């Protein structure tokens, strides 16, 4: 995915980001994700907490997810076995 993400924020060198972390965080809150490069290679991204929550928030409910599954509507046997198992000496 290198170089394909839409960038709205600044690209920082690691040394600069370390010494100006507060500014990096402020910029992430105001202008979007901030990319940090280490030895010229994109290594990390600083996101605002709101952007992070949007990123990890599930898209819809579990029921909607399962209904959209490729297995939805297939005749899977999901009945639980009534077998009590075998006795075990403890």
TrEMBL record:
Alphabetical list of Gene3D superfamilies matching this protein: YefM-like domain (3.40.1620.10)
InterPro entries, sorted: Antitoxin_Phd/YefM, YefM-like_sf
Top-level taxon of the source organism: Bacteria
A Pfam family it matches: PhdYeFM_antitox
Similarity section: Belongs to the phD/YefM antitoxin family.
Primary role: Antitoxin component of a type II toxin-antitoxin (TA) system.
Name the UniProt record assigns to this protein: Antitoxin
Organism of origin: Polyangium sorediatum
């Amino acid at each position: 995915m290198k170089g394909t993400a839409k960038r709205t924020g600044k690209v920082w060198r690691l040394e600069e980001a370390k010494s100006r972390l507060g500014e990096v965080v402020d910029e992430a809150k105001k202008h979007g994700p901030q990319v940090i490069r280490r030895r010229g290679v994109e290594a990390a991204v600083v996101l605002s907490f709101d952007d992070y929550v949007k990123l990890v928030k599930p898209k819809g409910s579990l029921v909607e997810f399962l209904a959209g599954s490729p297995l939805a509507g297939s005749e899977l046997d999901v009945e639980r076995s009534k077998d009590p198992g075998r006795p075990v000496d403890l």
